[in-house]
Design brief:
alpha/beta, five-stranded parallel β-sheet, six-stranded mixed β-sheet, 528 residues
Length: 528
């Protein structure tokens, strides 16, 4: 006989209140699964977490917390068997702790899958054969019980995504697909590296509830998180990394004390003064209300799925906009029309800086006036170049650095690395930095050319508390003290910067609908 089901919590806080420790299987034997004995990890030419000792036992669910670049993901990958150690011992005490019984979801995995799909796209272009990888094919490519797949589709609200190309899905939708994919083989241990990044406010508590239920049913979770508040119900133990070493590891309540959480959050250093005037700084104020972006009666569709039908939007010089809406509402598609990454821009009436797209201007003419920071750009930027060269590539809008910068450009790049606290990582290979460090480098890349328009798609995604504070303060400075216009996307209300004066709200369309009413037109209002 089953008891009444609880409604899905609306927030992570409500999910925590619903958690009852007695719901978890306390009767299991507390036997060892994995032991690390004074291990030192190696990532490229870097040594991480020297002398780390850690035990994982049956029935334990762990969270790993630490600042950007501290080695959180490397430690999780070592448990999976994908990051080598150069000293010490890693002992697996049970066949269920072997790599094939460990599921893994991360941004790097998402990057690998999308990279393979891009290669297939090139093959399709030259051969004229093949088709795009769909969400259903991605899921059914893993071994698993069909009944389990059916259940996961409901738990993670994935049914509307079936049959759609993974390249048409939002960042958050792809994250949920990969979590379902990792769960299909019924792993003993599931590693979730920053699973809430990119998810909207409605999806985060639903995912938290789903993962909590998995823990109740016997799947052990290792959660890599940037925010202490994302340590979801059911996490029994916490490993905390500070100053390049394990600072504490043990029972959740003993590790995550209020004093430790305050120290963990840290404070960003004061921002250096920004002295990078825009090229048009000498123009008369009355000329700065001309439109930067104009979209008229926009229609965008992928097959039968209509993203926009009748969207109108204008961004004028001197305005800072936020674009808000749930995963799958079209935010990334909207931005791709501006950057030129979506070819449907040429079938629509889109004006940038007063010129209609497709009437003679090159994509490079447009891009030199726009700075972009987005998860999609970060996924595409896989060149084995140093961080400083990534920043310098912003002057030339290239993925990789193929032209020699001049001394002034080098000085500007170094200044932005200093502003973002990345000067000590300038010579590090971009592919060997953490997800959050990559994001900071791409913010510097976007700003080196003092763009007229700066597009920020989840700029704080993957950043620890101190770096979030630094970036938000920087965005506020740019919005208030420079003439760069901002188009800003975030799923976190607390990250809404005060210089935002206008909001475009998008609603999610059902993917099964072929003809629907127009997406609501722009709604401009003062943020509360």
């Amino acid at each position: 006989m089953t008891g009444p089901t609880r409604p899905t919590p609306r927030t992570l806080s409500e999910a925590r209140e619903d958690y009852n420790p007695l719901d978890f299987c306390l009767h299991r034997k507390n036997r060892l699964l994995i032991t690390l004995e004074r291990v030192t990890l190696r990532l490229g030419d870097r040594m991480l977490l020297p002398g780390t000792s850690w035990e994982i036992r049956t029935g334990e669910n762990w969270a790993i917390l630490g600042p950007n670049g501290s080695g959180k993901s490397a430690l999780a990958r070592a448990i999976q068997g994908d990051c080598p150690h150069v000293r010490g011992k890693l002992i697996r005490h049970d066949p269920e702790a072997e790599g094939k019984r460990i599921g893994y979801v991360s941004f790097e995995l998402q990057e690998e899958i999308l990279a393979r799909e891009e290669l297939r796209e090139d093959e399709r272009f030259f051969s004229g054969r093949g088709h795009e990888l769909t969400s259903e094919e991605l899921l059914r490519g893993k071994d698993g019980d069909p009944a389990a797949l059916d259940r996961l589709l409901d738990i993670l609200d994935l049914r509307p995504l079936l049959g759609h190309s993974i390249r048409t899905l939002s960042n958050g939708e792809n994250r949920k697909l990969l979590i379902a994919r990792a769960l299909l083989p019924a792993p003993k241990i599931l590693i979730l590296d920053d699973p809430f990044a990119g998810l909207d406010a409605g999806s985060r508590p639903s995912l938290a509830a789903a993962v909590t239920k998995l823990m109740q049913e016997g799947t052990q979770i290792i959660l890599v998180a940037q925010r202490p508040e994302e340590v979801i119900p059911g996490i029994s133990h916490v490993l905390l990394i500070q100053n390049g070493r394990v600072a504490a590891a043990g029972i959740r309540e003993e590790v995550l004390t209020p004093a430790r959480i305050r120290r963990f959050a840290g404070k960003a250093k004061a921002l250096p003064e920004i002295r990078l005037p825009l090229p048009d700084a000498g123009k008369a104020p009355e000329t700065r209300t001309d439109p930067l972006v104009e979209m008229t009666n926009i229609h965008v569709a992928y097959g039968e799925y209509v993203v926009f039908n009748g969207l109108n939007w204008t961004v004028r010089r001197g305005e800072n906009w936020a674009v808000v809406g749930p995963n799958g509402s079209g935010k990334t598609t909207l931005l791709s029309l501006i950057t030129g990454d979506n070819l449907q821009v040429y079938a629509n009436e889109v004006y940038l800086f007063g010129k209609r797209r497709g009437e003679g201007e090159s994509i490079w003419d447009i891009r030199r006036r726009i700075g972009v920071v987005s998860p999609e750009l970060q996924l595409r930027y896989r060149k084995p170049v140093r961080v400083r060269d990534v920043v310098l590539s912003g002057f030339f809008d290239s993925i990789g650095l193929y032209r020699r910068p001049d001394r002034e450009q080098e000085a500007i790049a170094d200044r932005w690395l200093e502003i973002l606290g990345m000067a000590d990582r300038a010579d590090r290979f971009f592919t060997r930095t953490s997800y959050g460090e990559k994001r900071l480098a791409l913010i510097a890349r976007a700003m080196v050319k003092s763009p007229e328009l700066l597009i920020l798609d989840e700029p704080c995604q993957g950043l620890d508390g101190a770096n979030r504070e630094r970036v938000l303060a920087l965005m506020k400075e740019i919005g208030e003290r420079t003439e760069t216009g901002l188009i800003y996307i975030t799923h976190h209300e607390e990250e809404m910067i005060p210089c935002i004066g206008h909001i475009l709200k998008l609603e999610k369309r059902e993917r099964t609908v072929t003809n629907a009413d127009p997406v609501p037109e722009e709604e401009s209002e003062e943020p509360s």
